[in-house]
Design brief:
single chain, about 170 residues, mainly alpha, 2 domains, 9 helices, globular, RNA_pol_sigma_r2, transcription regulation, RNA_pol_sigma70_r4_t2
């Protein structure tokens, strides 16, 4: 949990406070970025760009308690934009992608298959699933990040999971 006093210091221009906040949430930012672009280098670039944009616009943050929500939303927007720009340019051999995913060979296949299945979802379902299962956020946190009602988050999560199950059954048969 972030210290609101540290966030307030960062808003007032304290660079050390800002770096402390970034250090607390950089892994979450990376996981979010990687879930979208599936490339380590691009995800690291997104983390860097997110930190830069957050640093420049920290004074626009109105509620210090929502710092995590605010910075993850910045990371999501940058990730989505980067993914859309580079979508047609990313040509990765399946073996190379498996090596980046990590784990045992059988686990790699499952992870790759799951990532491919998530890519088939509509963006609204994909966003909710990535935030829930890759970033371990609660329904309430997802609602704040995406600025949608909690009921809508639950609906998107349910429909996204249903679509994933359906996709996976079709592919297995």
């Amino acid at each position: 949990m972030l210290d609101e006093i540290t966030v307030k210091k960062a808003i007032k221009g304290d660079d050390n406070a800002f770096m402390s906040l970034v250090n607390q949430c950089k892994e979450k930012i990376y996981r979010t970025a990687y879930a979208y672009v599936k490339d380590e280098d691009m995800a690291l670039d997104i983390v860097q760009e997110t930190v830069c944009k957050a640093y420049v616009s920290i004074n626009t943050l109105r509620e210090p308690r929502y710092f995590n929500t605010w910075i993850i939303r910045i990371a999501m927007n940058i990730s989505i934009n980067t993914y859309k720009k580079k979508q047609k340019l990313i040509c990765m051999e399946q073996g190379e992608l498996l090596n980046k995913v990590g784990g045992a060979e059988e686990e790699k296949d499952d992870k790759l298959y799951l990532l491919q299945a998530i890519d088939t979802l509509k963006d609204k379902y994909k966003d909710v699933i990535i935030l829930k299962y890759f970033d371990d956020l609660t329904i309430e946190e997802i609602s704040k990040i995406l600025d949608i009602p909690i009921g809508t988050v639950k609906t998107y999560l349910n429909k996204g999971l249903t679509a994933l199950r359906s996709y996976m059954k079709k592919e297995i048969i």
